[in-house]
């Protein structure tokens, strides 16, 4: 079952009719009805950090509910984000009032760009005391997470809480997926649930965004008639489980395959003979990269997520661009091209089935990486670290990466072929990597998660180590220690700011920090040590942290 199928099943198909007649219902509270709705939607894991306002919701949780405590709300949301992305399902988050929500905002920005369906709930003060702003009132709660959440609500009365909860879950996975926010006054939970709430348990919602046959036929004709096709795959191709069909489509078209700029997941094997590269995140650079094509087909990506400001024409003359996306905003926002809003997995499968197969000698032409520079004086070139990881880790390893200046080195050495092999902070907000790796490992217990984290990035989510230790989540953390915010050094140069302060992070002892949070670790200083410590760490069933001193490199 693909992640998208799992998500659809979880939300649209109640397992059995539980409605019954009004007279048969035992007296239920808003709390117990909401707990039943959680079960119906498969929301059996809560990532949270509680306060007084939230405790009444957490009373009498069903036995099969698993509560995962994070020690900071950025970590709570980061773990939930990784867990939700890797499972392909909505996930419940519970935060403390306005202050807990505020701590989570940076992490929420990542969930927006990966369209992660997080159902974020927060406890509110007692209804009658919110207006006078009693301690821990979440003032204007519905506005607090805007514009990051696509939907937010504080029900107008206790009786509307179960319906609003149901709406929150469905909103998170319908249309453009993403985080939603529900604030609930804590005196609501003990109130009686309305007898009509039983109908909520019998609801279903079906979203049908398949392409009609004539649209498929027209797209197929245009693809077949275009001599030189560039297939530009977005991270969402992996999210919706379409990477296998995308590979078939690419091979039948014998298209060059580009990955859309700033990828947060990997939609195509990066050693495949048709893999051409990650598109540069700049207007003029993309224009020149697409010069030799007639038609560019973008699947599951915005057009485009630029980063560096290099002005120019959006497209070369005579290149047509068609974008197929599930994200309505990505279609409406785009400043050029023809957009089609549709189910990306179904559209990819339909095109892969229907395009004519061209001659193609690049299918089995896998490309080997070049050897990496050797370790000198105990200092690794980042490429050497990645070479050792590639040679030591199993083929189905999953990387969660947050190390910014080493991007180029990473892609030079990696050989990633399977779905869900790569996760990266989707908005560029640091603090995702450490916690998301814990969430991804919880969701994918049969795959080893390696978290590759810079010594700057690690600090934004360091308390994830504690959750990994306490819940026995066997992530292996590899900390690349160059003592600085390497990417910002490079940016300072690009932007002509040679004297910017605050760019170095010297003298942090990550093995000591890990020990403090209950995670064993060690520092390695040569290739053999790294390989043997990594092998041992992956064989264990506990988290482990490996600290590696690395040289300064540029992201590209
Ligand atoms: N704060 C947050 C929440 N997100 C950010 N992206 C930044 C600050 C700014 N920032 C970057 O964009 S990259 C970077 C910072 C501080 C440096 C990260 O350092 P690192 O990796 O040690 O993790 P490198 O390889 O040394 O760049
Ligand atoms: Ca660094």
């Amino acid at each position: 079952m693909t992640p998208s199928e799992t998500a659809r099943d979880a939300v649209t198909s109640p397992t059995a009719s539980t409605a019954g007649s009004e007279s048969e219902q035992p007296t239920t509270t808003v709390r117990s009805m909401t707990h039943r709705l959680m079960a119906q939607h498969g929301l059996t894991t809560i990532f949270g950090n509680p306060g007084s306002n939230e405790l009444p919701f957490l009373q009498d949780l069903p036995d099969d509910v698993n509560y995962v405590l994070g020690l900071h709300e950025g970590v709570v949301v980061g773990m939930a984000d990784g867990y939700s992305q890797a499972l392909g399902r909505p996930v419940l988050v519970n935060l403390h009032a306005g202050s807990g929500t505020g701590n989570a905002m940076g992490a929420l920005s990542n969930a927006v760009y990966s369209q992660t369906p997080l159902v974020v709930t927060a406890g509110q003060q007692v209804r009658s005391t919110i207006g006078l702003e009693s301690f821990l009132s979440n003032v204007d709660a519905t506005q607090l997470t805007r514009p990051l959440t696509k939907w937010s609500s504080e029900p107008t009365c206790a009786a509307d809480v179960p319906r609003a909860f149901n709406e929150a879950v469905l909103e998170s996975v319908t249309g453009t997926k993403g985080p939603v926010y529900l604030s609930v006054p804590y005196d609501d939970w003990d109130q009686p649930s309305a007898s009509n709430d039983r109908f909520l348990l019998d609801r279903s919602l079906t979203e049908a965004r398949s392409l009609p046959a004539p649209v498929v036929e027209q797209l197929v004709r245009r693809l077949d008639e275009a001599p030189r096709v560039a297939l530009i795959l977005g991270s969402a191709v992996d999210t919706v489980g379409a990477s296998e069909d995308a590979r078939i489509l690419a091979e039948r078209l014998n298209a060059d395959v580009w990955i859309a700029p700033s990828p947060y997941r990997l939609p195509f094997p990066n050693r495949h003979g048709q893999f051409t590269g990650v598109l540069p995140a700049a207007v003029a650079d993309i224009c020149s990269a697409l010069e030799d094509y007639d038609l560019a087909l973008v699947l599951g990506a915005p057009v485009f997520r630029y980063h560096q400001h290099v002005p120019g024409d959006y497209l070369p003359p005579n290149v047509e661009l068609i974008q197929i996306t599930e994200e309505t905003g990505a279609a409406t926002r785009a400043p050029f091209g023809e957009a089609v809003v549709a189910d990306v997995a179904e559209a990819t499968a339909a095109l892969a089935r229907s395009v004519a197969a061209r001659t193609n000698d690049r299918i089995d032409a896998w490309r080997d990486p070049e050897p990496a520079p050797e370790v000198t004086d105990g200092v690794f070139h980042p490429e050497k670290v990645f070479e050792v990881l590639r040679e030591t880790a199993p083929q189905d390893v999953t990387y969660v990466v947050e190390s910014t200046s080493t991007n180029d080195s990473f892609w030079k050495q990696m050989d990633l072929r399977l779905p869900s092999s790569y996760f990266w902070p989707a908005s560029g907000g640091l603090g995702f990597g450490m916690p998301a790796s814990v969430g991804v490992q919880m969701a994918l217990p049969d795959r080893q998660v390696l978290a590759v984290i810079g010594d700057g990035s690690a600090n934004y989510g360091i308390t994830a180590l504690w959750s990994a230790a306490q819940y026995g989540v066997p992530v292996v953390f590899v900390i690349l220690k160059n003592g600085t915010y390497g990417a910002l050094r490079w940016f300072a140069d690009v932007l002509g700011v040679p004297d910017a302060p605050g760019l170095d992070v010297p003298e942090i002892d990550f093995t000591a920090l890990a020990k403090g949070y209950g995670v064993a670790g060690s520092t390695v200083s040569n290739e053999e040590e790294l390989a043997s410590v990594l092998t041992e760490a992956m064989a264990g069933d506990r988290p482990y942290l490996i600290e590696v001193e690395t040289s300064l490199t540029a992201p590209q």
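Residues 97-113 form the longest helix (17 residues). The chain has 21 helices and 18 strands.
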